[in-house]
Design a protein that fits this description.
The chain is α+β, with helices and mostly antiparallel strands. The protein has 6 helices and 19 strands. It has 2 domains: 112 residues, 3-Layer(aba) Sandwich (Thermophilic metalloprotease-like); 174 residues, no CATH class. The strands form 3 sheets. Strands 6, 7, 10, 11, 12, 13, 14, 15, 16, 17, 18 and 19 form a 12-stranded antiparallel β-sheet that branches. It is globular and about 65 Å long. The chain starts with a helix and ends with a strand. 32% of the residues are buried.
Length: 350
Amino acid sequence: MPVNSTAESYARAIAGELLDLRLGDALSINTDEEDLEFAKLVANTALGLTDVTVKIVVTKEGRPVNVLEFDPAPPAHMPKGAVMLRLRHVKRRSAVQGHVLDIAVDRNDLGVIQKFGHLAEPVVLNRRIAVPWCVADVFDAGDPAWEAVGRKIGLSVSNQGLAARYRNRRVSEAGIRNIVLRGEDFCLNLDVPEGTLFTDGAQTLSSGREFLSTMDFDRISFNVDRSSAEGNVRAVLTALGVEQEAELIFKDGILGDWTHTPSLDRLIAFDENLRRPGFISLMDNEICLNLGGALVEALDNVPDTEENLPRWFNTSLYTLRCVLPVKTDVLVTDTNGITEVLMKDSQFLQ
């Protein structure tokens, strides 16, 4: 991507507001080759805050191919702690060449899965890292997503972060046990287990240090019962690089029928757990039902082994993101059986 005012503001927001870099922080940036110039921009921005060498690990198809180091002017400070940043390139695919559909999808071929979809969060328990970390999306030049990034930065990341935490706290305290996603011609009902947390981009380490792990820090995510889905939903999803509209029909907790296409059929055949929901993500203007892998960090009690995961927790190598239409309402019911509208037309009401 070319360096412009939005990119420069984004780099400053990542270094100074999301990761909240401090003197002595040793920043490590992981990036694909195509985003190396932006990674360098972040590195040079970070040097003015940390006064410690910044490392950039360049990857190609998921494999490290180069390591670059950016040093501050001497005398530099000694590192006091580690900080991690992953730049994730997001491509807007409306269509791809036919040969993509001919790829043999192997359960162990994570390179193919990562290239044409979304890898799920790894179910590696006790994997909490004690350093600030962030995943920042980077887009193609000219992608409208840059405008959204610019607007968010212009509204003050710090103030928005406080507002997001307030909303998350209110939702968490509501005691939600059931959620209904309702649109003009669909209605999907799901249960929210007692053992799930409502998470957002705000993170707090055991040391008390706070940071934001994503630019979508106001996105609220929570697990749902993998066996509870009942009804139907319309959504836009991307299967093996192909963006498409689809209707998904759930019965007895499992995806029983859907709008059939070669890519979606092949992906669902890849893993049976993709026919069950993992978690839901809510933010203004985007409601997302995620099939496949659930969120380990949204468990209120993380077990030591996968065998002790709750029965309602869904596991998969893949997460199929299903973005619902803007004209979608979210209704929630609490432990007392009281139902209220949480979102109207994909907008929070509080």
